[in-house]
Every structure is written in structure tokens, then in C-alpha cells.
Model the fold of this input.
Amino acid sequence: MRPKDLPVICAYLGFFLGAVSLLEEISFNWWSIIVLIILLTYLNHLKWHFYLSGITLNLLAISLILFAFFTPSTGAFEILLRILFILSLIKFLSPLKNRDLWQIYTLNLFLFCMASITRLDLGFGFLLLAFLYISLTGLCFLTAQKTGEINIIKRPLFYFSSFFTLFVILFAIIFFICLPRSPYTFLFGFGFNPKAKTGFREKINLKKIQEIRKDKSVAFRVILSKKLPFIPYWRGIVYDTYENGSWQMHFKEKIKRKDFTCPSTYKQTIFLEPYQGKTLFAMEYPILIKPVAPKRIFIFMLKNFSISLPRNVSMRIEYKAFSCPSFPASSINPEEKNIYLQVPENIKERLKEIVKNLIKKEDSPSIIAEKIKHFLNQSPFRYSLKVNESKGDPIIDFLFSTHQGWCEHFSSALTLLLRTAGIPARLIGGYYGGIWNEMGNYYLVLQKDAHTWVEYWDGKTWKRIDPTPAHFIKKHKFLFLSKWIDYLKLRWYAYVINYDFSKQRRLFSELKRIFTPKNNWQVKYPQFKWSKKIIFLSLIPFLISTFFYFLKRKNKKTPLLQLQSILKNYGFRCPSSEGGLEWAKHIEKIDPKLSQMIKDFALNYYEVRYGKEKMDDKRKKYLNELLKEIKNYLKNKKCKNGLIF
Amino acid sequence: MKKGRFKVKITIAGIVFVILTIILGVAAINTGNNLLYIVAALMLSIMGLSGFSSFINLINLDFTLELPQEIYAKKKTFLIIKIKNKKQYFPSFLLGIKNSFSISWLTFLPPKKEASIYLWTIFQRRGWQNIPEIFIFSYFPLSFFSRGFKLSFKEKCLVYPKPIVCDFSSMLKDFGHEDVQKKGEEDFKGLRESLNGEYLRHVHWLATARLGKFILKEYEGDGSKKVLLILSNKNDLENQLGRLTYLANLFFKKDYAVGLKTPSIYLPPEKGEKQRKEILKTLALYET
Done:
């Protein structure tokens, strides 16, 4: 590779990285056309050197832009993207002179700006860094090409661009932290990825849970101070109504924030990925939620202690949650009781058959729950994600014929059986477990950790019971490298994506706190009057500094100027347009001795000023002595009135 | 030699870059999109560091000017500028050196190294002339800004009149007379030390070997051919001076003993480099 080709190669690579960063935004047809044209233009630059005229290229650009406008698109963003690609490709079709290359680098930057609107992931960060290095190297070589022979400086310029990129990144971090941020932004949320994943919704059927459990993507990450000694349940939505194999949440009574008494709370910071639902997840039982980023979102808590947003979680949300290990409230009103005892009439009789055989009249709710759970955990019931679609009610099929199902079959069966036994019960949708990442002290919870369990009213409070056989939990195969990459992702979201005005303010106040000297006691300043002494004392440093300032300034005068000022003091007018020798010449007729002294001084000084001699200490001393001598001579002569020449 | 203050000029690419940075910065603040913030921060960082590196690129450079031995007015003169990079670790890249006539580039100067650059200039007038200022600048690293400083020289240089080619025979009529003696058997006058650059035809080899420096034989009359250039103080002085400059060089080249007579100065005909320089200097400084 010749060094002079490097700016061209960098322009191509920059464009390629820009296109990769927008891969998800371009349709396959557009992508194919772009790749084909790029390859052709590269070959053209290498071999054929066939270039269209400027007018042809302009006409081509206009017609393609019009085509981009009038072909169906999803919106302004896609049209703008198409125009950018068209302009870049047209530029690649032209002979790549310095100006064209500059324009391509700018267009590549625009591609990355477009990508920054649609992407939030860590991959974008890596692509941007690669683009930065490539573009800076290309630009350095482009500058060198404009001015000099770059073959000689190929290697040093590479080293320079590498170090330059490194320092640019370091300084960019500082700029990123310090750039002003506003708590109020219009176009809010424009920058977030609208592609939400699947997840728990207000109405969910058995098949949906199966889908979620097959999804390996991240649901959320939870930062905790340390690993929990138990496998955590991440509580989410509370389903109360069952109908034809689907659960729904009807009971949406909100509660106002109040202080719940709780012996100990777990504080968590949760990064929830976007999904098609409204519920926020937290370790059971969440009693307080504080949004972190975005700061200004409306979160409400329902009476059943599920937390919800008014609309779907279409953006990544960071929030803090405080959870209580036991259920914090202890009352149930008749209306709630009725809801949590509902069993569809068409299956009620069949369920009664099972309940009759299992329980006794004197059994407490807890014993009944345990008995039913024991029943469901025994043969022939078996955990499986491969169950044929049932024609009737799936829970009846599960209980009486198939005996196979996943967590929702077990939980639904238990809920309905408890309700049949007269115990209020509800189905909880959430996540169970997760992967503990010790590098960042957080749980990584995947969609495949989705789970349902049951809460029943034992007469005093709600209690959790999980009827799904324990062996459903499969250990995640998670390599160390994957943990490391996921940790980077978490930090990327925490420090970069979610960095906002409040975090900036917090960071600066923290820095202020660190750098402010700590005073643990109160200082009582002595009361004093502004006496003359104090004023004088306070002026002393000022006077001293002024004295040194003028002394320094005086010393800064050149020896010739010093001589001039001495002579002026004694009445000699020494024009600045003349030099020391001229002054001596004028004085010669009046005072040959003084003239000789001035001549001697001037010659000595000129040897330094215009000759090759240096102003060393010896010469400085000699000139000072001469000056003193002249001064003393003038003093002795008392020629105060002086002479004018 | 005096270095001026740094001057920074923004290029068109720089203007575009600054405008883009501002737009992206405003967009980032408006949208609160942190990835746009990153792009804007990177651009700001590039801008700042680009200025800083161009500053580092130009500091601690020592310049020395070497003038050619003879400078003629209105003729291209090559100046040699020696640049020394006094920096301990940092090289200097893409240094541009320009004056009003030409521009030269020094692509790379490693730390603690020295390099020479040629720059041509034209002195318009004869006599003692100021050396014109030169401008040291660099677009390094990214062509967004051009940073540079002026370099002015206190020294003056002697500029000889512009040599004007003229016909030898016509000159004899126009400007004076030729007093030519045919080379014969002149009387030996003595020995003398050779002057720098003098024609070494009459070397006394024995004395040269003994003393270790060139010793020339001197004859009565000192040469066979003599010419006296006379400057008549008529009109068209500059042209006359130009022609005399040309003739002086021509006759010295042809091994004449050349003299000069002006209304105020008389230089008797002599040979040698010293005489030539003296004549040229007299012509250069005539009525300045």
C-alpha cells in the first residue's frame, strides 16, 4: 500500500464503518446496492480510472435523491439516511481529489451522527472509536499529502495519529463529563431505540410465556451491594383474572406513596431494557421506586405492589428500587377477596374434584397450599416446554390429561385450585434467578429467566409459593469473557447512555466535596475592628509585591536605557533615535572624560547587542560598575542643569 | 533574528468543522442524546488538540539564515534557512516557509536535528538592504488551522546593482577607455600572500611550500591587461551601474586588472577578488 493511497482507503473504511453502524436501519435491497457500488468504485480507483463528468454526477445525484424521496419509506429518518448514502456514493464515483476526500470524511461523520440517534449499544462505541482512529489517520496523511512528501514521514505520522487519537479520546471523556446538560429537552426520547422486545403484558396466555422463555436476550440488570444468599424472585405484574387459558390484570387500584415499615430493605439499581409492557421489575416486594434516567417519568404503584408506567417501556430505564423481604401490607377488602377467588364456571367443578381429595376442612391456608404444591410436584406432573396445543382449557388438560407444562401451567393450576379451596390467590409474572456478575456486582437477568409463581392470602398476609418443580432451572453457560463484555455493557449504559443533568450535578458536587477541606468543627472567627494597624499590615504584602514589581521592571531595562535615564536625570537630552556612541560624540566637546566613559559603556554593550559576545555575569557586573561610575562622576560634578544637545 | 507572535488562521475545512461541532453540540444539548454528546465531545477534543499539536509543532525551533556571497538586485537570490528542532522528544511536521516570492516545505524534522531549506527572494534595490521577513507556518495536523509566525532579521545585506548585459566594444566608446598593455616581460616587483579567491597563476611554489600558504609573484604593472571603468555622472544612472557591474565581472573573469573611476572615487586597476568586491561595493553604494 502506498502512503498516498491511505487517505482514500481511510475514506472507504470510514464509510464502511458508518454503514455498518446503520446496518439495522437500511433495507437489504439498499444494502446490496451500496455494497455493489462501493466495490465497483474501489476497483475503478485501483484499475480502470473511468470517471463520469461533474454534470453527469450531479444529474445522477439529483435523480437518485428524487427516487429516494418518492419510494416508500418509514419516515424522514430513512429518507435522510438514503440521501446521505447517495451523496457518499456519488462522491466515490468521482475522482478522489483532496476536496472530495474531505467531503467524504464529513459525510462519514454524518452517518455516525445518524447512527447515534438510533443506536445505544456498546457496539456503536467500538465502531465510533475505530472510525475516529481511521479518520484521524486519513486526515493526517491528507494534510501531509497537501504539503509534503509523505513517504518519508509514513511511520512518524502513524505514530502521531495513534497518540493523537488516544489523547482525543481522553480529552473527549472530560468534555463529555463537563459539557452542559439541560434537565429540559424537547425531542425527548427521540434518541432511544423503539425496537422493544417481548415481555410480560397485562394480558398473557400460556404460549406467550413459552416464547419469552425461549428468548436469550437481556431483560434487565440489577446492581446490588453483594450477591444474595438465595435465588431472587424479580416481581413484576400481578394477574388476577383467568379466562380460557389467559391471565389478565383487572385490579388496578393505585396507592399513594407511604412509608412502609420494613425491618430491612434491599437497595437495587435496575437497568431495564425496553420491552412491550408497562411493568417495572424489582426484587420482591418493592416498596419504593425512584427513577434515575430518565429522571422525569411518572411511575405509579398499585395496591398489589406491582409497579407500572403509564405507557410501554419503549426506552432503557434506570431506576432505584427498595424491596422488603416480606409482604409489607396486611389487609384485604371484600372486593379484592372476590377478585382473587374468581374461578371460571366451566372448570370449577373439575377443580373441586381435585381439591376435595387433597384437603381437609381443618387445614390452614398454608397447609392447603403446601398440599396442592406437593400434589403438582409429584408424578405424573412433569416440567416441559414442549406441550401440544390443547383444544379445551389448557389448565384442565394439564391437570387431567397431559400432566406436562411449564411454570405457568403449574402456577395457574395452583392459583385456581387454591381459589377453589376458598383461599384468595393470584398469579405473579416476573423473573427468577439471573447470573451474578462479580465484576460489577450485579445480576444479569435474561428473558429466558421469565417465571410465574403464586401468592396466596393466609389470613394475615400474602405469601409466595412456587409450584414449579425445582429442576426447571438450568444453569446458564456463561463464559468469563461474556461476563466481562456484559460488565462493559452495563458500564456503558450506566456511565454513558444514562449520564444526564442530575448525574452531572451529582458528580460535580461529589468532586466539590472531595476537594473541599473537611472541617469537623465550627470555627469562631475573632471579632476585630478595622484599626489603622490592621489596614497597614494588610497593605504590607501589597506594597512589597509592588516594590518587587517595579524593581523587576527596572531591571528589565536594557543597559543603554539605564544609561539614558541617568543622563536624563542630570539634564542631558539623549534622543532615543540615537545610540550611545552618538551621545558620547555630542558630549565630547563639553566633557571628554564623560564622553569616553559613555563610549566605553556603549561599545561594551554593543558587543553583546550586535556582536557575538554573550551577556555573562562578568560583563553585567562591568556594565553596572561603569553605570555607577558615570552616576558618581555626574554627581560630583553637580551638573544639575546639564547641557542640551 | 526576531520571532513574531503566533498567528492562527482558520481554513475552510476548519470553518466547516467548527460549524459542525457547534450544530452537533446544540443538537446534543437539545435532545439529551448522549451518543451525540460523545460525537460533539470528540470533535471539540479534536479541535483543541489540533491547536495544541500545531503549537508544539512550531515551538523550540531555531532558525539561522545563510546569505549567498553575492546578491544582485532584481535577480533571484537563494536564501538558505537552517532550522534546528531543539525539542527533546517531539518532531516537527510539515513546516512551511514562505516569503512574498516563494514557498518551501520541510516535511519532517526529527527532535534535536537540523535541516536546511532553500527559499528564493528578489531584492529590488541596490545598497544595504533589509532582509525581507519570512513566515513560518504549518497546517499540521489536520488542516483545520494554519498556525505560524513571522521571522524578521536585523542584519542587512549588501545588494549589488543588477548586471545588465552589454556589448563590450560599444562600452568602450560609451563609458570610458581601455588602457591595455600587452603582457610582456615585466619587472619582478616582489612576493605577496594570495588573497582569498585570487587567481593562482603566478604562484611562487618555493615560497608557498616553505610558508605553507599560497604566495604569489608580483610584477611591476601587475598584469598585462588593464581596464578602467569610468562612471560619468550622467542620466540613466541605474542602467550605467548595471552595465558597469556586468563589465566588472566580465573583465575580472577575463583576468584583467580592473579599476573604477567615479566623480568622487578612484580605484586604480588591480586584479583579484578583493578588488572586484571593492568595485561592486562602490557601485552598490553609489549615491545611496
About this structure: Chain A touches chain B through 59 residues (CB under 8 Å). Residues 187-196, 640-645 of chain A have pLDDT under 50 and may be disordered. Chain A is about 50% helix and 15% strand. Residues 3-178 of chain A form one domain.
